[in-house]
Amino acid sequence: xxxxxxxxxxxxxxxxxxxxxxxxxxxxxxxxxxxxxxxxxxxxxxxxxxxxxxxxxxxxxxxxxxxxxxxxxxxxxxxxxxxxxxxxxxxxxxxxxxxxxxxxxxxxxxxxxxxxxxxxxxx
Amino acid sequence: xxxxxxxxxxxxxxxxxxxxxxxxxxxxxxxxxxxxxxxxxxxxxxxxxxxxxxxxxxxxxxxxxxxxxxxxxxxxxxxxxxxxxxxxxxxxxxxxxxxxxxxxxxxxxxxxxxxxxxxxxxx
DNA sequence: TTAACTGTATTATATTCATAGTACGGTTGC
DNA sequence: GCAACCGTACTATGAATATAATACAGTTAA
Lengths: 123, 123
Fold this sequence. Notes:
The structure is a homodimer. Chain A is mainly alpha-helical. Chain A has 5 helices and 2 strands. The structure holds a DNA duplex.
């Protein structure tokens, strides 16, 4: 069962998008694997304190991406292969890193300083 | 006059927030300084291709933060001192770095790998 | 079999973000 | 003085996000 233990829905972006990202980061980390069972819409919404429709939207979009298989009445499962997993990992990584680098460069921070900051804040 | 040359309004977050961040990053970089003149609401909205109300919202929030002084009929100017500038820089830096580190840790990336990625993507 | 759970769908409401259009009075340079 | 700006304010509209309350049919385990 995919875990949402360390999920915190408070970063400004839509909750349904945060749910999607939580799952994709799990996939990128190898924590979420093919055929893993997803919490039901009702269970997850109650766990996160959000509306079932919000979870349904996240799951629907993931299904449209081909990462989840859902069938009426049955539980939902991850539908992954090596290609999908690799492509998710690569895209998330590049996105996050490029975003942070753009920010730091706009703040006129040097690469050396950036590396030092990361070293400092990493725990 | 504060420049919006390299501004691109397409990162998912609200445009008014992107305007605020653009200015704050300029402050953090030392490019935007005390008493610098801001483009008028109408001029900037037309430059960015957004509604004047969107720019007004960004400016209003910056004024409420004490970073801008506006008076009806007159142009708007930055209102900065060393304390404000330092606090903006520190807060932006910490935010960006912590966000990126959280992402990379969720993806199970090691600190060593993280530093290598930054080194690779920095240009 | 049947009760409990599942996915799915619908309607209604509220808030935020952004747009469009208009208006009013203050400031500034010619 | 006056035209051309400026900040500020308001109403109306629409899309996106999220909530609430139902409803219905498929699946599954006791």
